[in-house]
Amino acid sequence: MLLEREGPLKTLLATAASAVDGRGGIVLLEGEAGIGKTSLLQEFAERAGVGCRVLWGWCEALFTPRPLGPLQDMAQALDPEVAALLDQGAAPERLFPALLSALQHARGTTVLVFEDVHWADNATLDLIRYLGRRISLLRAMLVLSARSDELVADHPLTHIRGDLPAASLARISLKSLSPQAVTRLAEQSGRAGADLYQITGGNPFFVSELLASSEAEPGHVPDSIRDAVWSRLSRLTGGERDVLEMMSIEPGSVEPWLIRALLGAEADAVADRCVARGLLRRDAQGALTFRHELARQATLERLSPSLQRSLHAKVEAAIAGLPAAQASAQLARRVHHAAAADNGARVLELAPQAAAQAAHLGAHREAAAHLATALRYVAEAPPAEAAQLYESWAYEAGLALQVYDTIIEAGHRAIQLWHELGRPDKVSLNLRSLSRLHWRRGEGEQAEHFANEAVREVESLPPGPELAMAYSTRSQLHMLHYRFDEAIEWGLRAIALADRLGEVETRVHALNNVGTAQLFDDRPGGRERMEESLALALEHGFHDHAARAYTNYAEYAVVSKDFALAERLLSDGIVFAARNDLDSPAQYLLGRQAQLRMEQGRFRDAETIAQGVMKLERLPVVMHLPALTVLGRVRVRLGEPDGPALLQQALEEGLPTGELQRIVPVRMALTEAAWLAEDRAAGHEQLTALAAMDLANFRPSDLGELAVWWRRCAMEEPLPAPTTRVPWRRAVELGGDPLAAAKEWERLGLPYEAALALMQVRGAEAATALASAVTRLEALEARPAAMLARKLAQRLGIAGRLPKMRRGPYTAARQHPLGLTQHEQQVLALIAEGKSNKEVARTLSRSPRTVEHQVSAVLGKFNAANRMEVLLRLRGEPWLLSTAGAP
């Protein structure tokens, strides 16, 4: 009997009704243990209607959760292809789209219930994020139940919750029963309600257990729930207790075959009696679980440690006796029982297999956890096995966690053991991994040291894959530090060796390094290598390499002012990253898109995009630095007071990396801020710091900008760098023809740069040039530069020939970041609500043909193949919708 659950039940049914109409949704059901989440969901399933297929799956409190546990539970009932892919251990990039297709083509509405997601593995969390971002266009509903007392601030589910689209998410927080409801339940059992509420606090499970315990002792209220459960157990037959005790060591459901294997054929009838007594429940597949997790835990507490270990060992042995495919599918469960049985040899055998299975599914946190379990028994492992455990754990933990010192130490331990075993190839691999870990921590010197050591370790051996990748890693680090000669040299070595060995992935990685170095140093061949790297990455499904190609190539296009190429790469790259749920690369590309809009003089658009990126949580420093730098620079140009502070923050975050690409643009921006404020000392401080760097490694574009600011800020000493590598558009200003430079900037589509160049014109053309500069700057809302231009005209005695100063606030000539018209923005807003073309036409009072054309235009400007891809981009770029006009 459900009491005081009408509101939550109504929310669940309303979400289901919306899903039936083709607008899917998510419900997150939270509450403490025993609050009645499962009972509510069972009532919902009964009332959902014949058009809804309700499928159930569970996350379990294993030492390390099963990868995709809920999906495994429901796969057979959901779709044969999905089940087959799960059995094959298919990677998420194959499995998730297959699941999406199954939901799209299902005859009715599908309700997926994932219970206890506070215990979910990483792969399940990735699946929740994947489905959640797409569900609004499906006839499907995703229900997630979780214990609120388990969801601490850093719990992974709290981060996933923030990734789910707010428009599709309903959150239900179940409360305890009121004193009135408890009294009503108590009276139905002939009990007094006041004491019962005081003891239980209104927790439905506590209430029901205490009421059940009163059957033997009317009027007596036990002191604790454990006592209530133990009291019930004491009244059972020996066979019933055996079933419950055996089941108590299994955190999830227990299959009938397992009960029979451990307790004999007669156990089926005994289990049925436990179900009839309300102690157990049976699901649609016949598997048994305790009616509540708290009852299982209380039963488990009755067992001595030796009996628990014995039962765990028997369960693991029984699962091992299954056919190979079934036993392999339950590796995580077997590791749990082997570890609980304290069987080190079995853990050392099974945990690496389970880790490999989890990593293949993208569940790197669970892979690391399996390996950590194995490391508890590392003293029992032979040296080679121990070395592999340290190596694998350092790699998986480095992917899933922050780079803690313990991960670095594990890498060193692996190197030591491999060195003692005479395996230079493995030593090199681990040195390369250490290099990457130190780079992620912003420790450039250590990263380079270990990259060099990785090469030295294997270069005297017959050439192999490790040497090829070590060459490419060294090339990458040189490229990141703008040592382009060395980057190209080592990258070409890597390519040559990779081709000899047939190592396509290494070739893709090295082509990117060499191509990026050639592009940024204005050398021929860079575009061709980047195009090949990107094409090969896409062809072979190397998603991370493809994202890296998009980011490096797009950055070059923005920096080189090839805006047509930049628009194409950014649009394609952002869509690719969104389609494949690559959040960090997507936000990095958006930072570059903000930079592009800034260069184009679309300051408000740049500000909107950069602010959107900075609001995102958990973004690595290197991924948000482009957006932070743009935000600070745009705010300076718009005259906002927080601009310099934002740039100072970017500088503080960029300096520890030691990479010029993270530092030089910020110091340039701070120089511009000082010039606009006529703060000579601050400008000289930044320029002096820039000149103290290795100018020979500056990109030509950076060197040209430095030379121009050096001239504009009237530095007394000559710039200690040759100007032969300065791009022509900068060189003409340095050569005394700023008017020609301004015309070139205008031709390229950089109105702000054109205006700054016009401010350098002197002589007879100064008045005309300054007037043109002021007109441009005021149109851009660039108040500080416009005011500086007027001050300059005043000093030159030509202020009267400038246009009158604008009065009142500036009016932003904002356009949509993707160029949508006002009518298309209205259509976009309705697409985001899940409206069909007919509904859009009816809402906007437009003809179906007109709406069809406008929807097509929206898809084209989003570079999207369908509405779902539009929604995915809106999830990562919500500002694209916030600027849309309301109908």
TrEMBL record:
Classify the source by domain of life: Bacteria
Q: In which organism is this protein found?
A: Mesorhizobium tamadayense
GO annotation (BP), single: regulation of DNA-templated transcription
PROSITE patterns the UniProt entry points to: HTH_LUXR_1, HTH_LUXR_2
**What is the official name of this protein in its record?**
LuxR family transcriptional regulator
Q: Where is the HTH luxR-type domain?
A: 813-878
Q: Name one GO cellular component term.
A: cytoplasm
Show the CDD domains listed in the entry: LuxR_C_like
Nucleotidyltransferase as a keyword? no
Q: Which Pfam families has this protein been placed in?
A: AAA_16, GerE
From the broadest rank down, the organism's phylogenetic lineage runs: Bacteria, Pseudomonadati, Pseudomonadota, Alphaproteobacteria, Hyphomicrobiales
Keywords of the record? ATP-binding, Nucleotide-binding
SUPFAM superfamilies cross-referenced by the UniProt entry: C-terminal effector domain of the bipartite response regulators (SSF46894), P-loop containing nucleoside triphosphate hydrolases (SSF52540), TPR-like (SSF48452)
A Gene Ontology MF term for this entry?
Answer: ATP binding
InterPro entries (alphabetical):
AAA_16 (IPR041664), P-loop_NTPase (IPR027417), Sig_transdc_resp-reg_C-effctor (IPR016032), TPR-like_helical_dom_sf (IPR011990), Tscrpt_reg_LuxR_C (IPR000792), WH-like_DNA-bd_sf (IPR036388)
Q: Give the SMART domains listed for this entry.
A: HTH_LUXR
